[in-house]
Each structure stands twice: as structure tokens, then as C-alpha cells.
Amino acid sequence: GPKIKLATDSKLAAIQRKNAVERIARLQSKGVIVQEYTHQPLLWAGSKFSLRAFAVIASVNPLIVLYRDGPASRSPLKYRADDFSDKLSHMPNVHREGFNWNMRRPPLQKLQQYLDTNFKSKKGYVDKTLRPSMQAIMADVVRSLVRQRGDRHYWPLPGTMKILCFDFLLDKNFKLYFHETNSNCVVFPGYPHLKGPVQEQTQQAITVDSLLFAEELLYRKKYGLSLKPTSFFRWKELKQSFDLLIDETKK
């Protein structure tokens, strides 16, 4: 693209610096609102919540990525928009003992049950709208991150499998917001005695089932077998734990 050349003229440079200082001063005097949508989140039984999902990058060439629902995270306390005295009402992903732990980490389908009861127009929303929207965003993000061999930012490294977690939020109008992604994925916080069935099933899928898939993938590459995930020996069991997010194998 075109190169941008900074002004060398001393007077012009001085004007640019003055404008920048004035702009910063205006922002500081007014304050800056960050992520305003969190002010009107969709509430789950009065609690603010976020949604987590996992992407397992099993292969870069061809690109094969698996998708797994993660648990929702509900704030320990009821949400109060204008009260910041207790931040626990604003932080759905806080890791803290107590507060009915398993109820605060429900599976995604529990959200649909809540919507069926409280939002009659949202029948089938999770399967028909929410999950496909999350998956579309995740696929775009993964493709933007992955680099092929020869790129100096080649990632993930050869022979490795990468797990990414994605966090989303919904506002009161059911608009979906992609919050963040990272590779430091916590399936459950560091309280072993607080693990619930959702966390245990997710941990099994992420740490065991995905490795079995990667193992068979390497075997198939070595012996020239089809890399189509649906042809894998373990696919019948694997599809109980994962959906295919991206499959760029040849037909």
C-alpha cells in the first residue's frame, strides 16, 4: 500500500502536535465509553452472562478446525446497571467459589430453555441463529490468524494442534458481540471440587477427544489416507463432541 510520510516542516509538525494534544485533552475531559453495549446486556434470570466456545485447529494444510460449545458464565450477583459498588454483578466470568457454581456455568442449551420460558418469539434461537452466528465469526477470526508455511509469522507451528476460546455477549436486543479470543483457555477455574458436568464433558472433549482426532490425522497424512474428517475411524464418536467449523479438505 502507499507509504505515509510524516511532515518534516517544523511549523506543520508543530500544528499536528498541537492538534493531537488538544484532541487528547478533549477525550480526557469528556471521558471515553468503552464497550457501551455492556450497559444494556441481555440478562439471564437477572444476571449478566457471557458465552464461551472453543475452536480446535487440528490442521493448517488443509485447514481443519473443530467447534465445541463451551459453558455460559453468569455473574454471581444480579446485574445493576448504575451500581458499580459491587463489581461481581458486572463480571460474568469471575472465578470465585460459592454462588451456586454449577448454576453459574450452564450449557448453552440451558439458555434456550430460559428463552423458551421468557421470550416466546425466540424458539429455536440457539440452534438456528445464535450458534451459526458465533461459528461464522469464529471461522473468520481463525482464517485471519492462521498463516501458511513460508510466512514469517507461520502459525500454528508444524505438528501442533491449537485450541482457541472465544467469548461472546448478547445485548437486550439479541445483538451478538464478539468480545475476545485467546489461547489460554480455562475450561474450568482452579477449584477441582467445583467441577460440574458441563466442565467435565468439555474438558474430556478438549483435552482427550481432540487429541485422538489429531493422532488419526497424522496417521492418515503419513499413509496417504483421506483427510476428510467424516471418513475418520473415530468420526462417529467425535461428532458427539464437536462440529466441523472449517473443512478445507478436497472433496
Could you characterize what this model shows?
- With 251 residues, this protein is α+β, with helices and mostly antiparallel strands.
- It has a single domain, classed as D-amino Acid Aminotransferase, Chain A, domain 1 (2-Layer Sandwich), CATH 3.30.470.
- The protein contains six helices and six strands; from the N terminus they run αβββαααββααβ.
- The protein has helices at residues 10-30, 101-104, 108-118, 125-145, 197-222, 235-238; strands at residues 43-44, 47-59, 64-74, 162-170, 176-182, 243-247.
- Strands 1, 2, 3, 4, 5 and 6 form a six-stranded antiparallel β-sheet that branches.
- It is flat.
Quick structural gist:
It comes from Palpitomonas bilix. This is Tubulin tyrosine ligase. The chain has 6 helices and 6 strands; from the N terminus they run H-E-E-E-H-H-H-E-E-H-H-E.
Question: What's the topology here?
Answer:
Elements: H1 10-30, E1 43-44, E2 47-59, E3 64-74, H2 101-104, H3 108-118, H4 125-145, E4 162-170, E5 176-182, H5 197-222, H6 235-238, E6 243-247
Antiparallel strand pairs: 1-2, 2-3, 2-4, 3-6, 4-5
CATH topology: D-amino Acid Aminotransferase, Chain A, domain 1
Strand content: 15-25%
How large is the radius of gyration?
A: 23 Å
**Quick one: overall form?**
flat
Protein name: Tubulin tyrosine ligase
InterPro entries: TTL/TTLL_fam
Pfam families: TTL (PF03133)
Organism: Palpitomonas bilix
